[in-house]
Amino acid sequence: MSKVKSLEDLMKIKEQALKELQMRDSKKKGKIVVAMGTCGIAAGAKDTLRAIVEALDKNHIVDVAVVQSGCMGLCEVEPTVEVRMEGQDPIIYGHVTPEQAERIVKQHVIEGKVVSDLVVRKGEV
Amino acid sequence: MPKSNVVLVSVDSNSVLKGAKYFKNLFQQLVDEYKLSDFVEVLETGSFGVYKDGVIIAIYPEEVYYEIKDAADVKKVVEEHLLKGRRAKDLELDAELFTRKLSVEAKKVVEETRIVLRNAGVIDPTNINEYIARDGYMALAKVLNEMKPQEVVEVVKESGLRGRGGAGFPTGLKWEFTMKTDADQKYVICNADEGEPGTFKDRLIMEGDPHSLIEAMTIAGYAVGATKGYIYIRGEYYGSIQNIQKAIKDAYEYGLLGEDILGSGFTFHLAVRLGAGAYVCGEETALMESIEGKAGRPRLKPPYPPVSGLYSKPTVINNVETFVNVPQIILNGADWFKSIGTESSPGTKVFSLCGNIVNRGIVEAPMGTTVRDLIYKFGGGIANGKALKMVQTGGTAGTFIGPDKLDVPLDFDSMKNYGVSLGSGVILVIDEDNCAVDVLKNAMEFFEHESCGKCTPCREGTKMLVHMLNDISKGKGKREYLDAMKNIASTMLDSAFCGLGQSVPVPLNSMLNNFEAEFLKHIESKESPCGICKFEKPKKKLVKS
User: Fold this and answer.
1) I need a labelling partner for B357 at 20 to 30 A (CA). Which of A10, A99, B291, B514 fits?
2) Radius of gyration of chain B (CA)
3) Contact list, B86 vs chain A (CB under 8 Å)
């Protein structure tokens, strides 16, 4: 650890640490649910999940929670990812590879546009 | 890479005894086994303020709380929650327990207000960065960069903060006296020798948020002109000692302790000293004797510590809870602090709920919260559906009250106004199965055991009190004992050397006055209404044949 010599140094540590702490916060404006049932994991959901977390981190998004869930019954289109943004219908995407996951974060989470070619289901089940 | 799920395992000392460390390691092991370690982080945190039979854990970001009793429960949570994303329903705890709301008056809804405990159960206490993320050391930076020592003292004085150890002396005044005394060396001491039976708030603060204490003491050092500080922790508090020592080490590495803190030129050194289990060392002058390496015996006062304290130098000595309020007062201002609590006692108080109560634990509530709300709203009522018999407020040196005084708002003036002491914030709930004589005997035995023996009124007085109570509990009591006990107590109040002996009349008189009938039953009709006291059978008379 290097010495903290001034208020600026302290603020830098604060910003970095705050980002990590906010990952834990439950009061977020959105939620991304990755189905991690056996079927999902077999289809590569772990890589998808990792890609999502990385993409959020890279784009400095701290108010979206990433949550794992069980199989949502759409085994044939795994890995599936559900995006629930505040005030919008939940969208379920299928066949989400790590690359597609990055697209979802960019288009849907950041720009607010649904990635229509991957949508499996729309609205509450 | 940041991880998406965080498992927080509460590792305060109570939880450790229930296997928290083992469960934490097991969590880590299972997370690794299921190859979830890229997504799940397992961390330790302080107490959540709620005690159940098992260890409490929280999983974020979902904010779900589980009670873990054995290894199978750990496995279940990992497999169900972390792996499959389903709630392990049978282990889940009601999240409301952790965000308890309370209506103090009909209209006003007051939530549990967390100033002192704002980080406990939220951050990893061994990680200095997490403390900094939650505005940690910002108050210190503000003080060193923008404020003169005099201004710091003024803010603390203005806030109306009073000592949380039990006596309620205005903290700002203590600081001012010390600041104004000229000396080549001054000291800051934290009294963390939490020995009042039933009190466990300081332990949870030190275990859950150790850096807040370090920051506050450094601020105090700057304000009064002290360059050295000691935290006197009771030796049994292994968890507190460990976390405080780690925190001091990290603060030194960051340069937040030591020389030239944050480039201000201010120097402050901090070290831990351990108590060896004597109750009297919670008395401030006895504590200083102990730090100096002598036997822990109280000193004659005056002079008071701000004039002549540790090594006969001016010394500020405050309780853990008192100190931890300071950074928040500096950051938010005296007016903010005064807006919480009552006029004479601003701020919050951390209450330790114990005894026959459903939710044993700690709760931080605004000053002026009633005993009833603490027991029934926060504490969940009396355990096992029993009826309430009495409550001891304020610790063993506090008052015994009957159910008729539950609506007294607790603050530093409630002793003067209603005869209900706040003390260190203990709410000891005693149900109908307990006997008044037995409870008082227990309290007096404690004082007898802890009396240091330096002065006669305390050494002999406590002995006599225990003797008489013993007789009463065996059916050998006499009517005169009741007055005699009050007499001894009032002598102790007038002539005992320190606070230990002087405080004996408080529990004694309140018990004798509020539950006189039960004592009389023991004495006159030789019966123990609760069946706790076992009376000796009168000896058979020898009958000559």
Assistant:
1) B514
2) 25
3) 69-70
Alpha-carbon gap, residue B279 to B286, rounded angstroms: 10
Please name each of the domains of chain B with its CATH number: 5-99 (3.40.30.10), 128-338 (3.40.50.11540), 348-431 (3.10.20.600), 436-524 (1.20.1440.230)
Strand partners, A67: A33
Q: What whole-number distance in Å separates Cα of residue B308 and Cα of residue B177?
A: 11
Q: Is B187 helix (H, G, I), strand (E, B) or coil?
A: strand
- CA-CA distances (angstroms) from residue B293 to B13, B185, B191, B279? 28, 19, 16, 17
- pTM here is 0.81
- Is B509 within 8 Å of B468 (Cβ atoms)? no
- Asked if B277 contacts B234 with a C-beta cutoff of 8 angstroms, the reply is yes
| End-to-end C-alpha distance for chain B, whole angstroms | 96
Verify whether the Cβ–Cβ distance A16 to B63 is below 8 Å. no
Pairing of strands B361-366, B348-355: antiparallel
Write the ipTM: 0.75
Q: Which residues contact B41 (CB under 8 A, 6 or more apart)?
A: B3, B5, B6, B7
d(CA B428, CA A57): 48
Which CATH superfamily groups domain A26-122?
Glutaredoxin (3.40.30.10)
Provide the token pair at B268.
């402050």
- Three-state SS letters, B72-97: HHHHHHHHHHHHCCCCCHHHEECHHH
* pLDDT more than 90, % of chain B: 71
Q: Which of B205, B29, B34 is nearest to B125 (CA)?
A: B205
Task: Collect all residues from B whose CB is shorter than 8 A from any CB in A.
Answer: 1-6, 8, 35, 38-39, 60-63, 82-86, 123, 129-130, 132-138, 141, 145, 250, 253-256, 262-263
Question: What's the pLDDT at B1?
Answer: 55
Count how many pairs of residues, chain A against chain B, have C-beta atoms within 8 Å: 110
pLDDT at B101 (0 to 100): 44
* Of B61, B141, B253, Cβ closest to residue A24: B61
Cα–Cα distance measured from residue B166 to residue B415, given in angstroms and rounded to the nearest whole number: 11
Contact B132 A28 (CB under 8 A): no
Question: Based on C-alpha coordinates, what's the Rg of chain A?
Answer: 16
Residues 6+ apart with CB under 8 A from B62: A26, A65, A67
Distance CA B304, CA B445 (A): 30
For B410, residues 6+ apart whose C-beta sits below 8 A from its C-beta are B349, B367, B368, B369, B370, B371, B374, B393, B420, B422
Tokens standing for residue B490:
């009032």
Mode of pairing for the β-strands spanning B269-275 and B109-111: unpaired
Q: Write out pLDDT tens, residues B119-148.
A: 887 888 889 999 999 999 999 999 999 999
The per-residue pLDDT for range B427-449, each reduced to its tens digit, is 999 999 999 999 999 999 999 99
Question: Cβ contact (<8 Å) for B137 and A10?
Answer: yes
Cβ(B399)–Cβ(B393) under 8 Å?
yes
Q: How far apart are CA B368 and CA B348, in angstroms?
A: 9
Q: How far, CA to CA in Å, does B439 sit from each of B432, B435, B456, B481, B543?
A: 12, 6, 25, 17, 39
- Alpha-carbon distance of B88 to B441, in angstroms, equals 46
Which residues are B363's β-sheet partners?
A: B351
* Gap from A83 CA to chain B (nearest CA, Å): 15
> B328 in helix, strand or coil?
helix
Mention every residue, 6+ apart, whose C-beta is less than 8 A from residue A109: A30, A32, A56, A61, A64, A83, A85
